[in-house]
Design brief:
The chain has 400 residues and is of the alpha/beta class. The chain has helices at 2-8, 22-27, 34-45, 53-60, 67-71, 78-88, 97-107, 109-124, 127-133, 136-139, 143-146, 177-183, 185-197, 213-217, 221-234, 248-254, 260-263, 269-275, 297-302, 307-313, 337-340, 342-356, 369-381, 391-398; strands at 161-162, 170-175, 200-203, 242-245, 266-268, 290-294, 320-323, 363-366, 387-389. It has 24 helices and 9 strands.
């Protein structure tokens, strides 16, 4: 309670955060703003407000996009405040089937392998089409997960080490994450291809696991701490110059691990290549195509590394890049948020897609798997054929 009050008391209630908050922008409800949520937590921690379903709803409606932190003159640790509150009232919050299933698969490698086999059967036969025609995902309350599933690709077994294919510049550890291993093999393979082509030996520790963001945001700090310790142990090699991430949601969380030596090495892959002085332009084939670049909130507001992908993509000859306008806020993915708050998530996604499709691009790129899956699902639901990729995948495709 004292920690909650100490963090909440930093807020001077100036309201500069309000126009940057996606849920406030949508609702114009003060309780759905950072300032309003801080006031609610402040009252609850001071025992002036009882725990109630309505209170929990207002806090849980937060996307934790952390746009408010970026503009806060008082530097309120808003993300920490929300996570600590959720930890305090964890027993009062209801876990949905979708999120429970997601956590089980992300935490347990045996469960992940079973899920991989299940996806293969579900998506390479007529099962998925039949299930959807009968509305089985909806009846089983798994329709929010089913809509996100990309086309199935057979995974390739990963080695623990990949040597550089150019003059050696260093050695990096690659964090692939639980969802990258399950649903985003092409980005994992692309990252290895680009890093080795840029002159880096790549280590892919088998012991690595989920970053723990889902658990921390769900109030389960004990599980989060355990997962963080596992990853710190997996990447304990002192020879690693950096721990490179391909999902900004994971990277932003790992940069906030308590283990400073680990956290200080974590960097987004595009930013890492730019900061390392890599110029791949001579190794890249021209691409005369229009590309819309989406910058995830976690990359922009937490990692503060939003320029890396743009600068890296500019190395592709003839590319026509158009970043989304600054007026576009969160896409609505926000980890498991899109599963538990589909109405708000779809409203935010609708605004993003309207902006992105004003002049329809040939590719839409995002540096976070959750955002990419959510955006791709929204495009499919609107009958729009448009490939959604990680920036590093497009770079890998253009390598000579």
């Amino acid at each position: 309670m004292n920690n909650l009050l100490a963090d909440a008391d930093i807020c001077v209630k100036c309201g500069l955060c309000l126009p940057h908050c996606p849920t406030y922008t949508q609702t114009q409800n003060e309780n759905e703003s950072p300032r309003g949520r801080i006031a609610l937590i402040q009252a609850w921690a001071g025992r002036h407000l009882d725990t109630s379903k309505k209170l929990i709803e207002h806090i849980d409606n937060c996307l934790l996009c952390r746009s408010c932190e970026r503009v806060c003159p008082a530097v309120v640790p808003y993300g920490r405040l929300i996570n600590n509150f959720r930890e305090q009232i964890r027993e009062e919050r209801d876990a949905t089937l979708s999120v429970s299933l997601l956590k089980r698969v992300s935490h347990n490698k045996t469960a992940a392998r079973l899920a991989q086999s299940g996806l293969r059967l579900y998506q390479t036969t007529r099962l998925q089409k039949m299930a959807r025609s009968l509305n089985l995902p909806g009846l089983l309350r798994l329709d929010k997960v089913d809509r996100l599933l990309p086309d199935y690709h057979e995974p390739t077994a990963l080695a623990s080490h990949y040597p550089a294919t150019a003059e050696i510049r260093g050695t990096v550890g690659l964090f692939i994450g639980c969802m990258g291993a399950l649903l985003d093999h092409q980005t994992v393979n692309a990252a290895i291809k680009v890093l080795t082509a840029a002159g880096f030996n790549v280590s892919v520790p088998e012991r690595q696991g989920c970053c723990g963001a889902l658990d921390l945001h769900d109030g389960d700090k004990a599980t989060y701490d355990r997962l963080a310790a596992t990853n710190c142990g997996a990447f304990a090699d002192n020879n690693l110059d950096a721990i490179v991430t391909i999902a900004s949601g994971c990277g932003s969380q790992m940069q906030e691990y308590q283990q400073a030596e680990f956290a200080g090495k974590v960097v987004d892959i595009s930013q890492f290549l730019i900061k390392s002085g890599c110029n791949l332009s001579e190794q890249l084939l021209p691409l005369s195509a229009s590309v819309c670049l989406h910058t995830p909130c976690s990359l922009k507001n937490v990692m503060r590394e939003e320029q890396g992908a743009l600068k890296l993509l500019q190395q592709i000859p003839d590319i026509k890049l158009s970043p989304l306008p600054a007026t576009v806020q969160c896409c609505g993915s926000a980890g498991s948020y899109m599963l538990d708050h589909p109405q708000m998530a779809d409203a935010l996604l609708g605004e993003l897609l309207t902006a992105a499709l004003t002049q329809p691009p040939e590719y839409l790129l995002s540096s976070n798997i959750g955002c990419a899956l959510h955006i791709a699902a929204g495009l499919r639901e609107r009958g729009i054929v448009l490939e959604v990729l990680h920036p590093i995948t497009l770079i890998a495709r253009q390598l000579k």
